[in-house]
Design goal:
This protein is α/β, with parallel strands linked by helices. The chain contains 18 helices and 8 strands.
Length: 572
Amino acid sequence: MSNLIEANVQAGRARLDEVIKSLHELTIRIGHEDLAETVSELRSRIFEPFMFVIVGEVKAGKSSFVNALLDTGREIAKAAPQPMTDVIQQILYGPEEQEVIINKYFKKIMLPVEILKEIAIVDTPGTNTIVEHHQEITERFIPSSDLIVFVFEAKNPYRQSAWEFFDYIHADWQKKVIFVLQQKDLMPPEDLEVNMQGVREYATKKGIESPRVFAVSAKQEMEDQKTISGFLPLRSYIQENITGGQATKLKLVNSIETAQTINNRIADGMQLRRQQFDADLAFRDEVKITLDDQEKQSLKQVDLMTENLLLTYDRITRKRLEELRSGLSMFGLIKRSVSSTFTSTPGAKVWLDNMAEELENELNTELRNRLNEGVVDLAESIKQMAHLIDLKLRSSKTILKDDHELFASIAERRENVLRDLRDQFNRFVSRTENFTDASMFDGRESLAPNLAAGGGIAAIGVVLMALSGLPVFDITGGVLTSIGILFAGFSTRGKRRKIVEGFEKEITSGRAQLGKELETKLKTYINQLRQKIEDNFNRFDEMLKREKTTLAILEGQHEEIEGALRDLKKEL
């Protein structure tokens, strides 16, 4: 049976190795170097023995505790006289004693000690060491550890730096912890019990259920006072809960739980990242809805503007048509002919030329004024829309902060894109040329001064006013030219009727051309302006497109790892 269990554990190790490999790939994909290194360390240690990591403050007696625990009768873990010269020491089983220097901060010690066949011990510098690099390396061992032995100086187990380090171990990594009060021989029993109870209460408040607290004296153990040194209860705990054939399986379970902790941490970060993406997508949709609503409103305004202009055109041309009919009647022509002979009244041809000029001036003046009024309203509504988009940009929701543990760089990149978008849009709406369409000017510069002073987005009214110089308003010349040709030989009644009918035909054709030109030019301009505004969001849209793809990949990989770890843990 034991061989079958061992075979299952070995198979589990191989499967876990593959899962942690996928987890490592995930950490690389999210671009977090420190977490990737942590996962790499975890993967490299799943085939190592069950690992004790000894932590505590400088001078708490950690090295002495390790020497007493190994019970070799000599000093293995050496206490450095100065913290700055201290190193991390990993003590492993080896057929013969050997010391391997990995770097100036870390060394391995191989010993032919029986207990080391099932456990490895890591002796670390003090949590309050003055050399920052020590704690950084110490923290690299924590995720791969299987049991944290927190050593306090028995006289004072309440130092803040020690408990802050405990918070890191427990809150971030949920590691199994036991507490050891070292140097108990330096305290009266009643004071020792007070401090042991104090540690239990501290640990309970911080979420440890039924904390295990041991009081020991390495000095007494090394002096062979084993009955009073306090190491017997500690050795019993280790024997009952770790060694005796359990260590390999426990090691595997601990590694699975650590991998789950890392994967869950990534999941928490991705959840915020997903919320940020959804918020940005909703914001972008709001902008599109705002533009859609404005486009519909603007197109309705164009329809109304065109209708009003055509009504003005109809009123003016209808009046001139009646004037033409009256002037071309037989009585009117004879009267005008006689009057021109004896007075300064203009003859028929001069009269007709004057009427043509008056019609052209009246049409251009009236239509220009009407167009001015409509364009001012159109420009004002677009201005309000631009301000609304600007407000949305400035109030967009930030969920993923630039100090996030895993995705700070993603948050910073998003903020840069959003800041550039705000600046770009602000510059865009403040430059009149961004709202111009050169094809609308047709070489004319007939602009409305009252709009030119508006500034900012209102200046598009100036641009739209260029429509008042379009050739469409020159069709009156064509109408009157046709009338002039028709006028030749007006003396017969049929010719007079032909002139009136020709005038009616020309003004009907001119009306259709006027409506078509206005609607086409204004609606094309509105569509082009919509596209210009949308173009400001190109970089933001590209960011959303990339984020959608990236999130789908990351979330899929996370779920796959989560399922594999859950299944593996259930089987064990």
